[in-house]
Amino acid sequence: MPQARFRIVAQVARNLLPLLHHAGIRHTAVLALPLVLTFFGAVTAFGIAPNTVTDPLERSAVTEELPLPLDVLAAVQTQQSPTQTYWREERIQRGDTLARVIARLRVSDAQAINFLSSSPEARGLLHLAPGRTLRAETRADGALLTLHYQNGEQALTVKRDGDSFTVDDKAATPETRVVSVGGEIRSSLFAATDALNIPDAVAMQLVELFSTVIDFHKHRRGDRFAVVYEALHVMGEPVGTGRLLSAEFVNQGRAHNVVWFESQPGRGSYYTLEGRDIRKAFLRSPLEFSRVSSGFTEARFHPILRSWSAHKGVDFVAPIGTKIKVTADGVVEFAGVQSGYGNVVIVRHPNKYSTLYAHMAGFAPGIQPGAKVQQGDILGAVGMTGLTTGPHVHYEFRIDGVHHDPMSAAMPQTLPIAPELKQQFHTASAPFARTMSLIRGASSASTSFE
What we know:
This protein is of the alpha+beta class. Helix content is 22%, strand content 35%. It is extended and about 95 Å long.
């Protein structure tokens, strides 16, 4: 290679010699030019024409026969079979019609197209949602064999049966996937979750879980979070979310962790990694978003009875239909109508506590005396039954039958996980702890994997 470079430089010098001689430059300077350029490494500055071979290499062709695997031969033979079918998938675009999508699926079947456009059973195909997909199985000649349309949690399948077609329209069985996502807050929590495509339902669960230890109105830029949650898919498309399985929130440098643990199938709670129940024994309010119209007092002027009397609870104002949640685990003691209170639910809690929820529009399914409820379960909806001037829920908190102000009363402490369940808890929570450590150690601002 060095010899080839020197030959190129010498050739360039010879080409320049007549020009330089004509300009009156001495030969010795020209002859010294290649040596000077080589010394200073300037030889590489000269261009080489494309496909120039400076050092010829010997080449030889090698031919070798390779046996074709049997599975490949079988596939080739199948492709050549007249009974071969093809699956194609098309995503629905805004403004698409059924005929347009069918054409992109390469369906050439007048009988099928006529059935799809006229059959009442296949009417769901006439309302195509952008972003959803249509999957079609066809023969080589374009005859339609199967057409599948997934619209949310509803699955519609059209199948050929000889010279006719059948339609199966039913709720799809979702597949549960576990998704792990971590990120950093740069403006707001919900802006960060939106940027990571975290569903709003998961973001709300995150806020609800940590609301007792973090003031989300004061979280600041640079706080980090991570969530592990269940995502529901049908035919590869997301249709909803399941439970939040684990979460971490680093607020002003302090890390808070929770993990879901079921002590028995269907009944569980969120605990810290040390085994402490993250929930308070009682929620202060049975509504997520509301305002207080009347507080706990020994003397209040009743707006309807027009008299002074004690108000033994707190009135939370909210629109009609707002969900009312039970504030602690317990058993429904009463669900019915009481004079003045309208529709009422009374829940008996462990250790001499009870709560009352009044003026409800109605009761949730299964809310009846003897029903077991867990903190956060829906009891019913806000209404205006009984003596009331507007939609609200009247909430009472009692200890041994004596009324206390639920906004200021000292609440009982939650118990740590039972000693006999500690080993089971640590075994179940260990994978989530490792996942959180993995996300925390990621160097990028956000991490996501399934």
